[in-house]
Amino acid sequence: MPRFATPGGFARQVRQKGLDYLRLHGNGRYASPGQWGMAGVWTIAFSVSTALLLTSQGPMTFLWCAACGLFAFFVLATLCHDAAHGSLSRHGFVNRLALTLGFGMFGVSGALWRWRHIRLHHVFPNVEGTDIDGEGSRLIRLAPYGDWHPWHLAQAFYAPFLYALVMAHLAWVEDWQNRKMARRMAAEQFANPMATVEFLAVKAIHALVVLGLPWWFLNPPLWALALGYLVYTGVASILFIVIVAGSHLGEEADFVSPDGDRIPHDWAEHQLRTCLDWSPESGAAAMLSGGSNAHTAHHLFPQVAHCHNAALSKIVSEAAADHGLTHNITTFVGLVFSHLRHLHHLGRPPSGRLNPLLKEKQS
Questions:
Q1: Torsions phi, psi of 213, nearest 5?
Q2: Cα–Cα distance, 302 to 77 (Å, whole number)
Q3: Helices marked H in 133-253 — which ranges?
Q4: Percentage helix, strand, coil, to 5, in the chain?
Q5: For residue 3, which of 256, 308, 292, 294 has the smallest C-alpha distance?
Q6: Which pTM does this prediction carry?
């Protein structure tokens, strides 16, 4: 694995200021009552949408499928991401329960997602050779060091349709691949009977609830059942990619190829360089995105609940300005278009404008 440079002034300042803020906050690093309240609102909205889905007929059924996917994503963002980092609650069993049930709504193993997310994403985002998001697909070229194929010329147009399949692919394909890797790399955690039972139970309950209940109550044709499932998972998938992955995969974010085994800047500066925030000090944006709008603050303080991200983001901006560094900030619309422009540029053949791109992003 590559090594970061020794922590500099920005790293020391942002850490100290962040710790000072958390010491003055009654809840410490954990979720506030307001965050729990919003999670309750999204959970009720999801439950109501599910009830309306199971009692609807005709095209309205697909509308309620989309509503279920929307509110399930908000539950996932509000509760489960923080639970994965152990910052939702002081009680470990509450974090594990939220993680399992939340990701279980999409048939994904919460334990596996947590292991992959923290181990393979948080330390080295946008670093060649360790970047699971940038190098994970042949269909879409997401990083300048990824292999180019002719079909990437059109990726800015077809990528959104593939993004809609992310959750279904994660549940029924990628999760099984991740399980193989986890059983090899973390055998004490995943190569035991209880881990296997939990993994299979999540798949079975997901299929029973998301496919079995609509089949029982509505008796739809198979094509309608399959389409409803794709609408449900597709809405959540697009939101997940745009709001979460888009915070790293945009024009403003740096991509780094290590010099041997060394990265020329420290870990904190790396998080600053490789994240793109949108309206990071907005409480409404945090409520809708689970704090992904202030992604830099989350990466610098990964064990802190997202209800603190707006305040921490202000600290990040001040520290970056003090040390002559750039805090990448845009709007939500800016985030979307930045990602689409990023796809367009990376879709061009390397013989065109891509040769200098990697060097430009590292400079």
A1: -65, -50
A2: 14
A3: 155-163, 166-169, 175-185, 187-190, 193-206, 213-218, 222-243
A4: 65, 0, 30
A5: 256
A6: 0.89
β-bridge partners, 329? 277
φ, ψ of residue 93 in degrees (nearest 5): -65, -30
Question: How many CA atoms are closer than 13 Å to the CA of 76, on its beta-carbon side?
Answer: 25
Q: Tell me if 331 sits within 8 A of 289, measured CB to CB.
A: no
**Cβ count near 54 (within 10 Å):** 14
* Residue listed under structure tokens 């970061």: 4
Cβ density class 15-53: b for 16+ within 10 Å, e for less: bebbeebbeeeeeebbbeeebbebbeebbebbeebbeeb
DSSP string, 173-205: IIHHHHHHHHHHH-HHHHSSHHHHHHHHHHHHH
pLDDT in tens, the chain (363 residues): 788 999 999 999 999 999 999 988 777 899 999 999 999 999 999 999 999 999 998 899 999 999 999 999 999 999 999 999 999 999 999 999 999 999 999 999 999 999 988 887 888 888 887 766 666 678 999 998 888 999 999 999 999 999 999 999 999 999 999 999 999 999 999 999 999 999 999 999 999 999 999 999 999 999 999 999 999 999 999 998 888 778 999 999 999 888 778 898 999 999 999 999 999 988 888 888 888 899 999 999 999 999 999 999 999 999 999 999 999 999 999 999 999 999 999 999 876 444 444 444 444
Residue 262 three-state SS? strand
CA–CA separation, 110 and 22 (whole Å): 27
- Interatomic CA distance for residues 217 and 206, integer angstroms: 16
How much is the CA Rg of the chain, to the nearest whole Å? 21
